[in-house]
């Protein structure tokens, strides 16, 4: 991969992180005074003033912003108002639980979305195709939280097969992972089907058929690799959203991950924790996008050549 291309992506990623931090900083300060939320209504003005002075909230927004950027560069993400611990420590202790949910959901997404999309394209117009398209329509139409509630009503309240909330076993993981994974699988299946159909009608596929190349080899060696780039993009977006994309699902199933931490921290105006979570989500998206771009060059060398030519010009 062209080093200049990588450097350009890293610079853009850094600017994205800076804009994200700036936006969150402004919104959180404009949405309310943390001192009024963290302290009781009966707190004296002196106690409120002391709280604001302790956490640096009595300074101007510009001073707070510059101090925050300086601290981030030094690896200090602030201290949680609620726990009194470093914000990064509070966030990172929730990350493994969220990653467990996210990667399990991703496995379900890949296991359902890619094979069904390929089969729908290869058997276009048949019952497999119709079933897949019906699945994608349902996946896009039903909100995640509604599907989660339905699963809780059926498998927890009625059948009493699975726990409705919490963590601790594979049975706690099953419903939230299925809820999160099936919704994403609909998107992956749709993109996979469209991409494979587009490749199947390309001239090089007709040429391969005319040369007498066997059908299974044409599909495995020619069609699928060329159809992979749009699918990689969609899957990359899902991986990038592993930490922040499960906010609703974690709330519905009381899954103690980063998503639920973000919701609670926003309600409590725990500024340092919210900023650390958002920065972690943005960093994940930037890194995943960089990996996806690098994967493009591996899947299709023409993209690598194009990047080199663009860097020279």
TrEMBL record:
The chain crosses the membrane at residues 99-123, 144-163, 169-189, 227-253, 273-299. Keywords: Cell membrane, Membrane, Transmembrane, Transmembrane helix, Transport. InterPro entries: BPD_transp_1_N, MetI-like, MetI-like_sf. It comes from the Bacteria. It is a multi-pass membrane protein. Residues 95-292 form the ABC transmembrane type-1 domain. GO terms for cellular component: plasma membrane. It is found in: Cell membrane. The keyword Transmembrane helix applies. The keyword Transcription regulation does not apply. One of its GO terms (molecular function) is dipeptide transmembrane transporter activity. Pfam families: BPD_transp_1, BPD_transp_1_N. Belongs to the binding-protein-dependent transport system permease family. PANTHER family: DIPEPTIDE TRANSPORT SYSTEM PERMEASE PROTEIN DPPB-RELATED. This is ABC transporter permease.
